[in-house]
Structure prediction request, 199 residues.
Amino acid sequence: MAYPTVPCPLHVFEPRYRLMIRRSMETGTKQFGMCISDSQNGFADYGCMLQIRNVHFLPDGRSVVDTVGGKRFRVLQRGMKDGYCTADIEYLEDVKVADEEELKKLRELHNFVYNQACSWFQNLRNKFRTQILQHFGPMPDREENIQAMPNGPAWCWWLLAVLPVDPRYQLSVLSMMSLKDRLIKIQHILTYFSRDQSK
Prediction:
């Protein structure tokens, strides 16, 4: 599962995906879409674009690809090209809240869930916290304007990436276009895991 703003290092060894990466680099787009697998359709209806930051080609043809999540998308139509999946997509953006009273409530919810996330992370065992920091880096800071980015605050995506949650649940959150709904889902997850921490 890939998320906006979250690093996603990949080890590419299958010839079809090596071709896909090479084409992404040669065409100059330096990006491709990532979806989790789906038993019925081959891959999920929602995913995230990955922007290639660097590719390290190994002598045996494999490569280590340094990517970071970009825009979220919904799959409109599936296809195949030279053995790898392709799709026509539409990009997703959060719907902005215009009403001042609603925005005030959204900020309060945002701040509450952010503090809950910080508390959950600080209460993890040192071993787990260290592993998360090594792999994902530190949790992004709280943003002043919570509606500035089309995908909402970066810390939400970082948190979803590190929480041990079923991929189908993660996918449902990835597909949401409401920051309020996303924060409520994250709050439910954190409440569940915080209960486990207190045992």
In short: DSSP finds six helices and seven strands in the chain.
